[in-house]
Design goal:
The structure is a single chain. With 183 residues, this protein is mainly α. It has 2 domains: 1-98, RNA polymerase sigma factor, region 2, helix turn helix motif (Rna Polymerase Sigma Factor, Chain: A), CATH 1.10.1740; 100-183, Arc Repressor Mutant, subunit A, CATH 1.10.10. It has helices at residues 3-15, 19-37, 44-61, 71-92, 114-126, 130-141, 146-153, 157-182. The longest helix is centred in the C-terminal third of the chain and has 26 residues, at 157-182.
Amino acid sequence: MSGQHRDATDIAASLQGDGAAFAHLIRRYQGQVAGDLSRFTHDRLRLEELTQDVFVEAYNSLRTYRGEAPFGHWLRKITVRVGYRFLKEAGKNRARDEAVPEPASTEADPEPGPAEAAARVQGLLAKLAPRDRLVLTLMYMQGLSVAEIADRTGWSRIMVKVQAFRARQRLKRLLEKSRRIET
């Protein structure tokens, strides 16, 4: 049985109240959802909570799934919405923001290694507005095209391009500012 056929069977059974059928969907897509959400947080517990939030929202919205696109595609749209809400909430309450602090620069090691560079990028991304973080995360960390980002976010392609351009400019200014502070 093909994946789409199994999905259709499990969705139909879930809509009839079969919890085991929805559990099959969870097991089938849990890795994909967690992988997508890992771009939004590195905290394992928070990642698990967000993954659960995606499946709760999917279950509550299952009647709206029309089957015009694969279930995994529909689920990814929900994943992006949950990730975006997380970024917005984290931005409102910086105390809960789990951004990795920028490592201190040392004279002996002016070029950061891969781990330090990744931590620096995560720290700078954490300082951006949620929409900026979302578009940069989808574009550069998940490697999505403008069309795919537009589809997942509900934005127009032009909006994605404009948002990405502005987000890159803001990230560049943050990087320049952090370099001035270090020197």
